[in-house]
Design brief:
Subcellular location: Membrane
Distance between the termini: 70 Å
Shape: elongated
Protein name: STAS domain-containing protein
Membrane topology: Multi-pass membrane protein
Helix content: 55-70%
GO molecular function: secondary active sulfate transmembrane transporter activity
Largest sheet: 6 strands, mixed
Number of helices: 34
Pfam family, one: Sulfate_transp
Amino acid sequence: MPKLFSDRPPLNAVLQEKAQKIRYSCSPSKCLHSLLSFLPIITWLPKYDWSHSFFGDLSGGLTMAVFSVPQGIALASITGVPPVYGLYTAIFPSFLYIFFGTSKHNALGGFAVLSLMTHGAIEKVMLRTATSYNATAYVNHTLDELFDRDNDTIITNTTLMQILGNETSFLEEVTMEMWTEGVTPVKQIHVATTIIFLAGIIQVLMGVFRLQYLTSLFSEQVMSGFVVGGGVHVFFAQIGNMLGIELPRRNGPGYLYYRIWDLIENLDNVHIPTVSISMSSFLFLVISKEYLAPWFSSAFNYPVPFELLLVVVGITATDYAELSRRHDVKVVGNIPTEFPPPSLPRFDLIRHIGLNAVAIAITAVAIHITVAKVVEKRYKYKINHGQELYALGFVGVLSSFFPVFPVTSGFARSVVGAAVGGSTQLTCLFSSLALLSVILYIGTALKYLPQCILSAMIIFAQKGMFEKFGELKSLWPVFKIDFAIWLMSFFLTVCYDMGEGLLMAIGFAVLTTIIRTQRPKWHFLSRDNETESFKETKKRDLERIQGNVCIFRMDAPLIFTSSDRFTMSVWQCVKKWERCKSESFVTIEQMNSDKSADIFDSKLKAARRRWKRDQKSESRCKLVIDCDGFPYVDYLGLSTLKSVYVDLQAAGVQCYFVVQKSELKRLFRATDFYDVVDEARVFNKVADAVKAAEQNISSLKSAKEVLTALASIATTDTILIDEEDIENEESSEIVGDEGREGEEEARRRAVSEHSEEIMSETSVSIGEARSTASSRNSINSEQ
């Protein structure tokens, strides 16, 4: 009977409720609360414990600044911008994170892999915005340059004409190919600030749409292979400075091959003084960081800044020995000692760096969230990952008004600040103030710092990345797919450029997930006698399960990628179950006899014949499908459930479903599932489905079958003949006068087969049946 009144509320009531919610969410107090939620500093700063935290944050900030000076200059050289911008990058983002961040220990700054990705984007933009033209230059030669002292050659007008092309002056006219700086003058730092601006916008949008779950695509294996591959790129980007070789610019996918070839071709141009300084610096870092640092850490409460000591020694030696002038050792150069004025990013460059900005933004988020999770576990407090997306985005957008390049969290910076007492965000404040003082008052002393020392520091810093190769040893024995993801991420990052390699590594990881969903695992369930619950049972233990009710479960989504696998697994489950239940018993005496192999072969052949016969009969197994293993089901998955049910019913296999999830129940009722499947065959618990299937089995057995089974056992002329002997006797023909004896033999053979089937179902062995029959024959003869 149709309902006269609908259960749904009136439309005007629904609209009024929606309007009230919108009015409440747009109220001034709600808007102010939402705005203030983006500034966590308003919450924690009034509660700051000045007496216990101030001096710890001060010492942590100063120590972090000491470590940030050489690191910032080194990262600037990787990015391809002047060294002072590396110090600016260590100041502004870290200072702005105080207002938006929720982590007490995270510190924003440059990262080697991000700097290398930014350098690739800068090179691409510089090439795209530049045009070539022919320029004429004049070289003024001296008399010493033209006079050959070895041969005592006299310079004449004819000689000048041959060398310089004129007879009256020492000026040489040279025509060379030059490149413009683009439509309007563009510098490397302009590209970097535009990248961090666009990356910040992308990160804010990720926070608005709650897309932090996308970082789950950056699995630990993907990031490990990517970071190690990035370390290879960093190594080859800095090896030229360590050897004193000027290598040509390379950019684009596969540029590393050309970089290696350029390095091999220029090995003859190695600068010996530069190599000597580089190797000495690298050896100092190895000895100090690997051997002296553990000893100093036990003797002092503060970590020793060996990098800063190396910088001081390098500056002093270069200045006093005049290495840059006398031996052509390249130095950092002049560093401006003034505060940079804010300026807008170059928005006209966005069309050139869109894809690079997306890759850098996602990579920065993945590294930042990874460091935040490590900090959570180490210092035992919760970090709001959604707010961290906003913090990273706002910091990027606001920092782009100053000359900085892309940043993210660095675990080393975070640990250094906390190791010496830093416990709140004010650690970054004191670090920024200390770095600003370095720029304003000590920046002029940094111009004598050799570039090869910075390269040695950068290459040594990749040691931690290359140690991740040790993860492969633990992955290979158990997690072979994760092992393949790690290697593929590494090779794709090395063989292609950084951004393209990362995207392809993520695609490969997703592909392995799709392949694994197409080949899900399935198993049998059986009742646990101790707990009365149902547990997973291995396929080799099926003979221990009593009864003829098979319980099937597949732990995977039933969607378009796994529907075919589900259908095949169901039929494979039925086949394994019925084949296992068709096998007959073998006694201990038969197993210990000399003919045990022949007995096993005969039993196997008999089981196969019985299984084939059962395939044609109506008394097949009862199948219970536990649907709780499906996290979700799509349209094709639901259609597959219906088709499997129909096919099983047509084959004589009674099918039952167990559904406990409300979402799947709602899906069944909202579709035509119950038009195909009897609703009485859908249960909430596995135990209820098994009970219904067992009752169905007991109701199918008629009284005639039971009496026949008892009569076959008690009959005096019952002869239990082995299936192998029956096969041999069936091959003979009964003709002539032996027809009557053949009919009698056939009757006894049929009775014997039927009795053996009854005994196999009730788990009675052949030996026990034979002894039971003989005892009953003796009783009948006495009667």
